[in-house]
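Field log, afternoon session.

UNIT: design team B
ACTIVITY: writing a sequence onto a fixed backbone
BACKBONE:
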C-alpha cells in the first residue's frame, strides 16, 4: 500500500509540473497579444491565434476569458483602441454563445458597448450582427 501511495504522489507531482509548464508556455505564447490588438495588426493576430491553435490545440474561445488587457477583454480593448481590423477578426472568431455571455466583470459585451457610448463603432456593428 505504501508503494502505491509513493507512486501516486510521484505521478501527481509530475502531472502538476507538466500542467504548470504548459500554462507557462501558453502565457508566453500570448504575452504580447494585447499590444497586437491595440496596434490593429490583424496579420500578427492571425499568426498568434494560429500558433496557439497548432501548438496547444486551443481556439480563441478557450483562452479569451483568461486574457486581460488593463482590465479589459481583447474585444473591449479593440473597441477602446479603435482597432477595427483586429476587433472585427476577434468578433468573427468568437463563438456567438460566448459573445452573448457576461464577461469577467459580469457585464455582457453589448451592454458594455452601450454603457461606454461606443454604439457607433464599426466593431460594435459587427458585434450586433453576430448576436
Amino acid at each position: 500500500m505504501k508503494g502505491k501511495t509513493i507512486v501516486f504522489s510521484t505521478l501527481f507531482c509530475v502531472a502538476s509540473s507538466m500542467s504548470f509548464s504548459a500554462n507557462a508556455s501558453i502565457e508566453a505564447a500570448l504575452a504580447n497579444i494585447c499590444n497586437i490588438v491595440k496596434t490593429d495588426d490583424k496579420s500578427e493576430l492571425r499568426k498568434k491565434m494560429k500558433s496557439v491553435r497548432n501548438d496547444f490545440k486551443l481556439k480563441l474561445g478557450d483562452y479569451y476569458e483568461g486574457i486581460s488587457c488593463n482590465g479589459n477583454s481583447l474585444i473591449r480593448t479593440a473597441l477602446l483602441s479603435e482597432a477595427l481590423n483586429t476587433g472585427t477578426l476577434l468578433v468573427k472568431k468568437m463563438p456567438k454563445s460566448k459573445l452573448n455571455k457576461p464577461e469577467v466583470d459580469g457585464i455582457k459585451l453589448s451592454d458594455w458597448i452601450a454603457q461606454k457610448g461606443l454604439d457607433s463603432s464599426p466593431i460594435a456593428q459587427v458585434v450586433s450582427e453576430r448576436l
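LOG NOTE: The chain has two domains: 1-29, 32-130.
NEXT ACTIVITY: expression trials, pending approval
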